[in-house]
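Why this split exists: single-chain examples teach little about how molecules sit against one another. For that reason, every record in the complexes split bundles all components of an assembly together and asks for one structure covering all of them. Below is a record exactly as it appears in the raw files.
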Amino acid sequence: MRDVCIIGIGQTPLGELWDRSLRHLAFDALQAAANDAGLAEAGIDRPDALFVGNMLSARTIDQAQLGALIADFCGWRGIEAATVEAACASGGAAFQAGVRAVASGMVDVAAVCGVEKMTDVGKDEITSALATAADADYEVVHGVTFVALNALVMQRYMYEYDIPHEAFANFAVNAHQNAVNNPNAMFRRAIKAETYNKAAMIAPPVNLFDSSPVCDGAAAAILCPLEMARDLSNVIPVRVLASTTGTDSLNLDDRHDMLSLNAARISVQKAYDIAGVGPEDIDLFELHDAFTIMATLSLEASGFAERGHGTDLARSGEIAIGGRVPICTMGGLKARGHPVGATGVYGIVDAVTQLRGEAGENQVQGAGIAMAQNIGGTGSTVVTHILGV
Amino acid sequence: MSVSQNWRLERQRYRLQGEECPHCGAKIFPPRDACPECAKPAQEPYTFVGKGEIYSYTTVIDGPLGFEYQSPYVVALVKLDEGPIITTQLTDLEGEPEIGMRVEMVTRKLRTDGDEGVIVYGYKFRPLLLPEA
């Protein structure tokens, strides 16, 4: 297996982008990543393969087969290309496919693009589309939404560990604070804990600020083997130290211990073993804060807090830039935005930005090792990447 | 959901029919043919009694397509007496549900697909009608 590097990153702004189609968003992100990598200067006119992360396009814009569509739209007609789908973990899974392709030696230059177009359809339709990540026969038919599934987990968590709702406030406060300095973020305004505490419930105990927003966006990365990266000038190669996936039951109700986030435990433990690091070595953690409860469970499953103590890290400010484990350093899913199939690649892009020392006001000083985690469903698929410079 | 997709689930929706693993004795719902506990083949039908307690719950304020007319409604995870936890709506509630409350299965209308589509029936759970012995 070859060592794999990220040599280029790109992203579009996140938000309600009605003037941009899915193919344009993907094009913008991929062109930015290819330019960032300096592919043209190096005499490389196209990647060898394109891996697209997407969950909903067949439903929201009646479009499947994004691999061929986007490759052609980028002027790369002929290359190997296909979509990878794992609900909200599609971006992470597509990135992993790219890493595997380059590591194996079958592909030299791989492009990965996470892209999602969510705002072309109305609220009812997007709610139903997102619910396809859950079990159609045994969950969705009873009227549960994705918000409701997270509410069921959060309710149980608060009951078992006797945690008040206010304990989760700082996850939202931290994400919004970090998004202020991210020009691409959807919500670039700070909020106070009071704003969180007063927000309307959408499925109790989940309120509006426990939940990440529906939006459009695309993010991309260019991968190549380490030896090739050394020949490319003007690039700070970021190494992929580990790329792992864990799975759990699709249904939330099928887990003996739904507060454990076992798929994250599996993928993180494997990632730590492969990279030869532990939680104490991670300088920043781009986790999957689709809901504050998922951020909490992710911190616990990834070894940063004991069970039942994930919110302590938020309350004490340890998740802030400058804290013990900075998370969501460019705004996370909550404030940067959560275009579902693209999110995993945005997490990689943000981690790379930090490792290159290009995060501006939000720079985590001395960042050398970053972890990015992408969660599909209620923790059914969890993809973890550890990156380093 | 198509007619056939719903029809295949009739025994689960109307009777809570799952499986019992002949190897480790686990009671399984929903049925899945490989035991989630021991991974061996498990295709012996087992009909659940239909009683259990609330493990967690929430209220869906804005329901998705097919549930608009029901909103708001309470969905819950119910831990059946035989072990498995299932996702279901709570019905016939008087006041707030709470974790640990005893509930029992009833058959109700789950959802509709517009004027022309299928009307899906299946289990919901309600607080026990009669006190337990």
